[in-house]
Amino acid sequence: MTLLRNEFFKTFSKWRSYIAFVTIAVVVPLVMIAVKLQGELLTKSLAGGLAQDIQLPGNIVNGYFVTFFLMNTLWIHIPFLITLGAGDQLAGEAAGGTFRLLLTRPASRSQILWAKYVTTLFYTTAVVGFLVALCLALGVTLLGTGDLLLPGRAMMVVPEAEALWRLLLAAGLATWGMWAVASLAFLFSSLVDNALGPILGTMAVIIVFYVIAGLPLDLFRVIKPYLFTSHLNIWQKAIEQPVPWPEILRSAFVLGGFDVGFYCVTWYIFVKKDILS
Fold first, then answer.
1. Banded model confidence at residue 127, pLDDT cuts 50, 70, 90
2. Cα distance between residue 140 and residue 66, in whole Å
3. Which of 2, 57, 146, 211 is deepest in the core (most CB within 10 A)?
4. Is residue 31 part of a domain?
5. Rounded CA gap, 275 and 94, in Å?
6. Which of 198, 8, 175 minimizes the C-alpha distance to 91?
7. CB-count burial class (<10 Å; 0-12, 13-18, 19+) for 246
């Protein structure tokens, strides 16, 4: 526990660990205020071509909807914010020349690596949790509650009574997906001596995988289900009607497999690595 506590302290004592939180703390209130001031325009945009044919019931632009909207909008950016902390766990030690001092402790390399990995997962959970908690807190306070409208999904509506637990489930699944991103950044962190490498490497892999998944070629269609990026949207399944539990479990299993795989590769590299500084 002492080792884990020390890793928590080191991570959260670095100013760059808070870039993700500051970014979220700036973007979310700005969006909430804008929606509060111009909610009518957003309502018309949601209805689109159906605006003349249907009457949207109740308080559609509410805190639940804006939470879903922001999670969906920022999802392309969250992996980058995650890598800021995950990519620094091992590379930061190498860049600072503190690996030798770290390894003089009684703890084994495996124990040190595990403590850093748990810290990485905790950091990831904290970032996603902060995003969702801030969205819900500000959204409900400024915009109230109501049914959760899902535009682009045949105007599907999640009843208000279900909206909160659906969003909390989505937050949990989103965290599970981001653990795979963090695990990849953690792996790259064991390969380089600066924190920039894991960030660029992780984002490059994600971009390549998204490009592969988006190309209409038979070969890529075959491998698409086995790319972890194909399952990062697992959180969106939490608000489908009904909840597709078999799909969620399948995606969760694939993502968990990548987590274990990335960590095992990292462990092998780290225990075999010749620490020179």
1. very high
2. 9
3. 146
4. yes
5. 8
6. 198
7. exposed
Residue 58's SS3 state is coil
Average pLDDT value for residue range 243-260: 96
Give CA separation, 86 vs 117, 118, 183, 186, in Å. 8, 10, 8, 5
The CA angle 261-262-267, to the nearest 5 degrees, is 95
Is residue 148 within 8 Å of 63, Cβ to Cβ? no
CA dist 235 and 174 (Å) reads: 5
How large is the angle between the packed helices 196-214 and 88-96, nearest 10 degrees? 150
Classify strands 156-158 and 148-150 as parallel, antiparallel or unpaired.
antiparallel
Kindly state the tokens that stand for 155.
């105007």
Could you tell me how many helices (H) and strands (E) the chain has, helices first?
12, 2
pLDDT tens digits for 32-57? 998 888 766 666 665 554 444 445 55
Q: State yes or no: pLDDT of 15 exceeds 50.
A: yes
Two structure tokens written together for 33: 């205020």
Task: Answer whether 0.70 is exceeded by the pTM.
Answer: yes
Q: Can you tell me the distance from the alpha carbon of 161 to that of 141, in angstroms, rounded to the nearest whole number?
A: 17
Query: In which domain, by residue range, is 264 found?
Result: 2-272
The structural domain count of the chain equals 1
